[in-house]
C-alpha cells in the first residue's frame, strides 16, 4: 500500500499544483478588483461583470459561441458515436486514422487547411464554416469516449440479447445503446466544451463577420487589456467547471479516456 | 450480409464527413504548396470564367501545367536560412518544453500513483481541470503574472538591479513562451505517466531494496526503465502540439519568441502567400510525423523486446 | 428421434480447426455434458448450437430441421453465459422478462410468468434489484431463470459455475440437477471440470482437440475409458504399458505389463496377440496390504511403498513393483485414529481383479 514518500516529493508536487492553479486564481481574484491595473488588490467590485453584461460585442460573441457549441456538439456526437461504435466492432483502417489524426496534429494545420478549403469552395467564412470545422475535430473526442465505453461493455451482453430473441437492431437499441449512453452524453458535453473553448481553428475559419468568445478575448488581450477579460475568463471557467462536473456525473472516467 | 450493412451504415457518415472536412482540405493544402500565389494573395486560380458562356473552365492542361505548378516556394524555404532557423528554434522550444514537463510531471505523477486510492482521482482531476479552462485564459493569466507590475517581475528586478544590471522584462520574451508552453501542456505529461506508474508492481521495489539497492538505484534501475513507455507517450503528447503552437508566442512571446506557427499564420492571414504557407505547414507536418513515428517505433521496439523475454 | 443432432460439424478459424468432424445426438430431457480441457473447442461447438457461429461444414438438426443458418434469435435455444451476461441497466424482473418481450408477449401475461420463474430460482424478493446488487450465486440463478422463462427446447450452459467458489458450486450443482428435472428441458452443459461432469450428467462427450474422444454414461466413462486421453483426463489412473500375450475364448486375455509380469485382463474386441497397448487401472480399484491372498481371478504383485500422499479422506500410495514400474493405489482412511496404514519403504502386496482395468490400444 501507499508508503510514506519523502518530503521533497511532496514539495515538488505541491509546487506543481501551485504552478497549475496560481495563474487561474489570480485571474479570478482580479476580476473582482476595483482597479484598472492587474497589479495589486484595491478593493472589491462587480463593475467588470457589469461592464461585461453591457458590452454588446461580447454578448453577440457569447450567443455565437453558444449556437456554434450546441450545433457542433450535436453533429459531432452523432458522427462520433457512429465512429466509436464502428471502430470497436470492425477492423477498420481509414476511419480510425481520420478520426484520431485531427486530435494528434497541431491545431494550426487543420485551421489553415480548412481556411484554404473554404475559400476555394467560395464558402463565406462565418458561423457555418466554424461549425463545420468544429465538428471535424470534435468527432474524434466523442469517438474515443464512446469506443472506450464499448470496450468496457461485456461482449456477451449483445450475444445474450440475440440469444434471447432480439434482432440485431433490437439488441442494439435495448442493450448496447443504454450501455453506451453515458459515454455518448459525456462525449457530447466534451465536444460542447471543446467547441466553446476553441481558439486556433476558429481563428482561421471565422472570417471577419462572426466573433466567438475566445476570439473576443483574443482581441481584447491583444489590443487593450482591461479587467473585463478577467471577468469573462472567470465566467467561462465557471461554465467549464459546471460542464466538467456534469460529464463526470454521467460518465466517471470519461475525462481521462483521451 | 447484415454484418456488411451495419458496417456500412455505421462507418460511412463519419468517414464521409472526415474525408470532406479533414482529408480533402489536407490534400488541397499539400497541393497548394506547388502552386503560384494569386495576384491579390491566396492562390493563382487554375480555372477562369469563359467570357462567352459564363461557365467555369479549367485552364491547366497537360501541356501548360508548368505555368501553373512550381517548386518556387520550396526553393524559397531552402534558400533563406531564416526559415529553417526558425523551425530549428521551434524544435528546440518544443524539446525544452517536453524536458521541463517530464521533470515537473514525473514527481507529481509518481506521488499520485502512490497515494491512497481514495485521493487519487481527486488529485488527478486537479491536474486535468486547468486543461479544461479556456486556452487563451491560461495564457492571459501568465500575462498578468509576468507583466511588469506583477510581484514576480518586481521581485526579480529587485535582485537584478541589486547586482547592478538593467531591470529585465519577463513578458514578451522566449522565457515567457517556454513558461506558458509548459503550463499549457503539463497535464498531457502527467496523465500518461500516471497511467504507467500506477501499474507498477510495488513488490519490485521491495525486492530491489531487499537485494540491496539504494533509493537512487531503485529509481534508475527499476522505476525509470519501466516507466519509459509513459514517458514516450507523454513526450509525444507535449512535443507535437508545442511544436505547432502559434497562440502562445503570438500573445506572450513578442518578436523574440516567435515560432514556426506564427510564420504560418502570417503567411496565411497577413502576407497571404498561401503556397509558401503551405510549404511551411508541410514542414511542420513532417516534424510532427517524425516525432510520432519515433515514439511509435520506440514503443514497438520495447514491445518486441518484452515479447522476446516473456 | 433425437432432439438435437450434430452431424460431421467442422469449424475452422483460419488454419486452425477448432471443431473437427463432431457428430453426436442429444435426446429430449437429457442432461448432456461436453467435457474437455480448455481450448478443446467446447465453447465453439456450443456457440454453433446457439447460432453465434456457423459451421464450415456439417449439419445441426434441431427437431429434425437443419438450423445451421438460422440466426440466434430465431432458434428455440437459450444460453447461460459464463459471465452471466445479465443486462446491467435492467432489474432482475426486466432481465427475466426480456425474452418474453422479444417474443411479443403482452404485459399482463409476462408478469405471472416472471413471478413463477423468480419463485423457481428462489429470488422472489429480489425482483426489483439490479444485477450489481446480487451475489454471484444469485446472479447465476437470474441468468438461468432468464434463459428458461420462455421454455426453450434446449438450454446451453457454458461453464456456468466456474466463477463461483467451491462451496457455492456444490450447492448450485444440486440446484441445477433439481431444476432440470423439474422443468424437463434438455441441457447441454459445458465444463472442463470432470467432477462436475460426472456428478451432473446423464451422458458425457469427452472432447479433445476439437474431436469427441468418447461419448458414454458417466459410470462407463469413468470405469472404462476408451483411450489414454480419457483415462488420464478423468480421475486418476494408472496407465501401464502392456502387450497382449494370449486371447482366451471366455472373454479374457493374458497380457504382460512391461517390467512386471503377466496377468489376466478383460479381452477387447479387435485386439490381436502381440499387440502393444496400455492397461488403465483406477487407483481405488487396487487392493493393498502387508499380505494378500493370491486369488485366481486377481493379478497379484509384491512391492515397496515409494511415496504416500495423505489427502484427508484417502491416502494415495505409490508402490514400486518390478523395475521402475510404479502403481498408484488409493485407500480410504476410514479406520478410526490417524489411520495412516503404511510408511515409505514398507513391503506390501497389491492385487486387483482382472476386470478392474481396461486394455487401451490408443
Ligand atoms: N473467434 C475465434 N478466432 C480464432 N480462434 C478462435 C476463435 N474462437 C475460438 N478460437 C480458438 O479455438 C479453440 C477452441 O476454443 P474454445 O471453443 O473456446 O475452447 P474451450 O471452450 O473448449 O476452452 C481455441 O484454441 C481458441 O483459441
Ligand atoms: Mg470455453
UniProtKB/TrEMBL annotation, chain A:
One GO CC term on file: plasma membrane
Membrane topology classification: Multi-pass membrane protein
Presence of keyword DNA repair: no
Stretches assigned to the ABC transmembrane type-1 domain: 62-247
Residue spans crossing the bilayer: 7-32, 66-85, 97-121, 127-146, 183-209, 229-247
Any Pfam family hit: BPD_transp_1
Cell compartment(s), UniProt: Cell membrane
Statement: the UniProt record of this protein carries the keyword Membrane: yes
Signal peptide: none
InterPro entries: Bact_Polyamine_Transport, MetI-like, MetI-like_sf
Entry superkingdom: Bacteria
Any single GO BP term: transmembrane transport
Keywords: Cell membrane, Membrane, Transmembrane, Transmembrane helix, Transport
Family: Belongs to the binding-protein-dependent transport system permease family. CysTW subfamily.
PANTHER family in the record: PUTRESCINE TRANSPORT SYSTEM PERMEASE PROTEIN POTI
Record's protein name: ABC-type spermidine/putrescine transport system permease subunit II
Originating species: Rivihabitans pingtungensis
Taxonomic lineage: Bacteria, Pseudomonadati, Pseudomonadota, Betaproteobacteria, Neisseriales
UniProtKB/TrEMBL annotation, chain B:
Membrane topology designation: Multi-pass membrane protein
Family in the record: Belongs to the binding-protein-dependent transport system permease family. CysTW subfamily.
UniProt source species: Rivihabitans pingtungensis
Alphabetic keyword roster: Cell membrane, Membrane, Transmembrane, Transmembrane helix, Transport
The protein's name: ABC-type spermidine/putrescine transport system permease subunit I
Matches recorded under Pfam families: BPD_transp_1
InterPro entries (alphabetical): MetI-like (IPR000515), MetI-like_sf (IPR035906)
Locations listed in the record: Cell membrane
Domain ABC transmembrane type-1 stretches: 87-295
Cellular component GO terms, alphabetical: plasma membrane
Transmembrane segments: 12-34, 91-112, 124-145, 171-195, 226-248, 276-298
GO biological process, one term: transmembrane transport
From TrEMBL, chain C:
Transmembrane segments: none
GO CC field: ATP-binding cassette (ABC) transporter complex
Catalyzed chemical reaction(s): ATP + H2O + polyamine-[polyamine-binding protein]Side 1 = ADP + phosphate + polyamineSide 2 + [polyamine-binding protein]Side 1
One Pfam family recorded for the sequence: ABC_tran
Function, in words: Part of the ABC transporter complex PotABCD involved in spermidine/putrescine import. Responsible for energy coupling to the transport system.
Family note: Belongs to the ABC transporter superfamily. Spermidine/putrescine importer (TC 3.A.1.11.1) family.
Official protein name in the record: Spermidine/putrescine import ATP-binding protein PotA
Source organism per UniProt: Rivihabitans pingtungensis
Name of the encoding gene: potA
